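Q: I'm building a small set of examples for a reading group on sequence design. Run inverse folding on the following structure and report the sequence directly after it, with nothing in between.
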């Protein structure tokens, strides 16, 4: 499949990506990820390996689109559980910023 990543055309195949990622240890995932084989890789790591470009030269979206078109399972940003937030009035907010008084 022909795709453009960082304004450069690449002819990628699923088997070619599998071969490129063979033996590469996955970094810790903190954002978007791609499952290749039985391992989960950060999107930017996959992009760097298959394009041989610096991670700053391409976006995660470009690599996600290419990997999804090749049939790999892609995951977006993890959804954080929305914790209920307590709304403070200006006095409470100022007190919190200054620190609560020590209990005696």
């Amino acid at each position: 499949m022909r795709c453009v990543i960082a304004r450069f055309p690449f002819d990628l195949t699923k088997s070619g990506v599998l071969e490129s990622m063979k033996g590469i240890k996955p970094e810790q995932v903190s954002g978007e990820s791609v499952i290749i084989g039985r391992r989960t890789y950060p999107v930017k790591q996959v992009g760097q390996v298959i394009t041989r470009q610096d991670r700053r030269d391409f976006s995660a979206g470009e690599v996600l689109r290419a990997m999804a078109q090749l049939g790999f399972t892609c995951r977006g940003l993890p959804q954080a559980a929305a914790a209920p937030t307590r709304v403070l009035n200006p006095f409470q907010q100022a007190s919190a910023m200054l620190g609560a008084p020590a209990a005696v």
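The mean pLDDT is 86.
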